[in-house]
Structures are given as structure tokens and as C-alpha cells.
Amino acid sequence: MRIEELRELFLSAPEATSTRLLAAVLGVVVVVLILWLVRTRRLREEFTPLWVAGAIGLAMVSLSFDLLRWLTTMIGAWTPSATIFFLSVAFLGIVSLAYAVRLSRLVIDVKNLAQEVALLRAQLDESESARETAQQLREHR
Amino acid sequence: MREASPDAAERSSRRGSRRDGMIVIPAYNEETRIAGVLRQIADADLGVDVVVVDDGSADRTAAVATASGARVVRHPTNLGYGSALQTGYKYALRNGYRLLVQMDADGQHLATEVAKLIGPVAAGEADLVLGSRFLEPGSYVMEPLKKVGSDFFRWLAAMSGLRITDPTSGFQAMNERVMRLYATNFYPVDFPDVDVLLTAHRSGLRVAEQPVRMLEGERASSLHSGWKPLYYVYRTLLAIWVASGVRPGTPSA
């Protein structure tokens, strides 16, 4: 058997109904979970687009095996499962990079807020001790 | 930013009995050494206020500093050396200080050398003055690895037209223009270094150096151990590259 034939064999393998069903259910569960988390105010709306896109992608790929096969040929993978793994890793990479960007901004925000608290507390301490000194002076007189 | 345009009336009412200059000392768990540093400053009779920024110490740093007569600003949590310095700049700007000297809390920087740094800033000859260990040869012996890093950064700075001998010196004096620049978000939270100096240089601020004597510091040696130097060089290179792309604009006088 030549190697191209082997690849053809991989690509034309009939889709397993159980796998498709599992992926579709997983996609739906993730979407529902995200919506529920947003509704119960545990997940902010602006964090959801990536996850919803990922879940919809999973559902689409599991519903249309032709799409998965087309993707597999496009990216030069050998098996549809390799395509799924590749897309998952890419998805996770993008998600963590997005979080790293967000974290970088939060570091600055938290630093500025903590500095503000420190400066305000110092100001409060100083005006209080100034008031006490004034009070003592008045009592002394 | 708020620091850039403090309300004049508010500023004058807060001035109180403040002097024109202040020394900022970032301190993290320095209860054993901070009192000595503060005593040296008091003995030097510099005519400036002293502000200790306690960077979320777990020990009695803040209490010791207060007892020694310093004004104390306490971070609610540990934010890093750079952030502590920056809190000092923000404090100085809000309270109308026109001149600021930064020193380390470990006794590495000597109070007797502060006047040398203040001189050119007070005279209007420079905006930022660095205390250099290397302007007078043979005065300070550096570990070989640190020397290589220091030389490399010095060479990098020279490439941009900034001629300095001691780019890693944390002993500096500056005026309001520098404080305004340093109070912005580009300022690193961990270790401000040659990248910050280059940004100041590019913003049109005049950077000068004065020869000073320094003692061996423990902060520096703990920073330059293990994998940290490598990360440090990497981070500084990256910061220089970022700084070369962004013009923060000349801070208004």
C-alpha cells in the first residue's frame, strides 16, 4: 500500500456516530454552561466570545464530517482527530494569550489602586496627626 | 493624569510644614537596617523630608521608620521595588516637592553623598542625576557577572546617545519633570533600569552623573543570583525595544 492511499484511507474512514454525538453534546453543554455562568453573574460577558466560538466550532465540526475532512485536507493533517487536537491546542493557546494580555493590564490597574490607597492613607494619617497636634496646642494654652 | 495637574489651592493647603526636597526610601522587610539609614540621613542634616515607602513588609519596617521620624506610606500589599519608588514620585508630586532623591533601605547608599546628587538638580543644570560608582576608578569592586551586565547596558545606552558610567545605580536625584514622567504607567513595577533612563533621555530630560561612594548592598546580590540575571537582561532588552518604539512625549515643565 502506498502512503497516499493510507492517508486517503484515514480521511475516508466512516465517522463514528458515538464520537459525533459525544462532540455535539459536549459543544451544547459548554454553550449552556457559559450562558448559565453569565446569567448567574459568575462569568462576565466580555470573557465569553472565545469560549462560545470554541464550543460552536466543536459542535459544527461534529455535525458536519465533511467540514472536518475539508479542514484536515486544508491544514495537511492525516487524520480528522489530529485536526481536532490541533484546533483545540490553538484554541487554548489563544485563550491563555488573551488572559495574559488582560492580566498585564490588571497588574497596572491593581498597582495604581494600591498606590492610591497607600497615598490616601498617608494623607489621612498626616492630617490626623496635624489635627491632634493643633488640639494639644490649644489645650496647652 | 492627576499627578500632572495638581490643583494649586489644594497643593498649597497640603504643603503645611513641608520642605522643597524629599528623600524616598523604598523598604521591604528592612526593620533591622532602616533605622540606621534614617539616623545617617538625620545626622547629615540635609534639610529635606524623608518618606519611607513600606512595600507591604511583614515585619515592623513601618513602625521602626515612623519611630525614627520619617513619614511612612504603606502599600497594602507587596507591589515591587519599582512600584514603591513610583509611589514615592506620586507622593512627592501630590505634596508639591520640587526635588526628590531616591535611596535604598539597605544602607548601600550613603546619606553623606546626597548633597552631591542634589547639587546639579537644584542648580538647574540637570533634570536627573545618577550617583555613579565608576566615575572615580577603583572605588567600587563589582562581581564579574554583574560587571558584564552593567557594561552591556552602558554600551546600549551609549548607542542611543546617553553616556553614563553606572546605568544600574538606584541612587538618583531628580526634579519635578522627571517625577511626572516616572509617575506614568510605562514605569516598571519590578526593577527600573537603563530602559527607564533611556526613556527619560528620549523625552528630552537632561541626565547627568556624579561620582559617589557606595557600600556593598544585599538587595543587588540577591537579585543577581540563579536564573534572575538572565531574566533581568532579557526583560531590560525587551523594555528598551519597547521604549524605542514609543515616544512618551516630553513632560511639560
Provide key terms for this protein.
heterodimer, A: about 140 residues, mainly alpha, B: about 250 residues, alpha/beta, Spore Coat Polysaccharide Biosynthesis Protein SpsA, Chain A, 10 helices, 7 strands, about 40% helix, disordered N terminus
Task: Write a structural description.
The complex is a heterodimer of chains A (141) and B (253). Chain A is an all-alpha fold. Chain A has one domain (3-140). Helix content of chain A is 86%, strand content 0%. Chain A has helices at 3-12, 17-39, 48-63, 65-75, 80-140. In chain A, α2 runs antiparallel to α3 (48-63) and α3 (48-63) packs antiparallel against α5 (80-140). The model of chain A has no long low-confidence stretch (mean pLDDT 87). Chain B is α/β, with parallel strands linked by helices and 253 residues long. Chain B has a single domain, classed as Spore Coat Polysaccharide Biosynthesis Protein SpsA, Chain A, CATH 3.90.550. Helices cover 42% and strands 14% of the residues of chain B. Chain B is built from 10 helices and 7 strands. Chain B has a 7-stranded mixed sheet, sandwiched between helices. In chain B, α4 (81-94) crosses α7.
Helix content of chain A: over 70%
The CATH class of chain B, by name, is: Alpha Beta
Q: From the alpha-carbon coordinates, what is the Rg of chain A to the nearest angstrom?
A: 29 Å
Helical region count of chain B?
A: 10
Beta-sheet strand percentage of chain A?
Answer: under 5%
Proportion of residues in helical segments of chain B: 40-55%
- H-E string of chain A: HHHHH
SSE class of chain B: alpha/beta
Span between N and C termini of chain B?
15 Å
Radius of gyration of chain B: 17 Å
Low-pLDDT ranges of chain B: 1-6
Unreliable spans of chain A = none
Tell me the number of structural domains of chain B: 1
- CATH fold-level name of chain B: Spore Coat Polysaccharide Biosynthesis Protein SpsA, Chain A
Mean residue pLDDT of chain B = 84
The assigned CATH architecture of chain B is Alpha-Beta Complex
Oligomer: heterodimer
Most extensive chain-chain interface? A-B, 14 and 20 residues
Largest sheet of chain A: none
Q: Please name the fourth-level CATH homologous superfamily of chain B.
A: Spore Coat Polysaccharide Biosynthesis Protein SpsA, Chain A
